[in-house]
Amino acid sequence: MTRLSSRPGCPVDPGLLSRALEVAGRLAGDATDVITATAGRGARSEAEDSPFDWVTDTDRTLERHTRRVLTSEFPGMPVVGQELGAGVGAEEAKYRWVVDPVDGTANYVAGVPWCAYSLALLDSSGPVVGVVADPYRGHIYTAARGRGARVNGRPVRLVDTGRRAGALVCTELTRTGPWPGMGEFIERAAAASVGVRVLGSAALSIAQVALGHATAAVLHSYHEWDVAGAVAVAVEAGAAVLDRRGEGAGGCALPTDGLLVTVPSVAEEVLSWWSAASRR
Question: Where are the domains of the chain?
């Protein structure tokens, strides 16, 4: 089993790290203000095949604002977003930003207090800087390569107690519903006295592992912008990040075959549930 760690990644200029953290944190604060002021006002899904595939004015407004600020502060670094796509040359660029302006949009539209703003700076080794705003709790989670993870400026470090019974594992539905084998996975977790929760925000699900609230987060599929910011925080807090085969991403930004973010001591057991469920 290979652990994806930020430490062996390519070195990054300390000045860039500091400036990226500052700007990303400022954008997360802006997003917090907008999301809390506008949540629950209602919207209409634009996708006939997925009634919960929301796109709101807030999504577009926050992404445009993020792009304007990042383009001004970091000229030449492409910005890839959920709503407006990729900038020119994003795949070839040394650094690129990825943003999900509202992760958990269905919750946001309904006024359920569980959604996030996610922003990350990536290079070929993975997350360089990650920021996740948790607006309803007034928390901003931040991380930079080799500098650890913080919540509202306070350092956080994952404490691995090895405890399993009574723990929680987070997962998320796919765009069209439960992922293949999800029911079997939940049954196997329950047999081990572990609860499974579907909360509606991939970024916040991963953040719960970094914060010690959940023992693992399992995503059958995901978009880079959904998870990169939270993965940065989780890695810097001490979590293991693997694909469904138990392998790290190597030189890639993120695993490409599913995503498991977990307390290291329970990684093999959670992987065994996932692997067995996937074969059904």
Answer: 14-156, 168-278
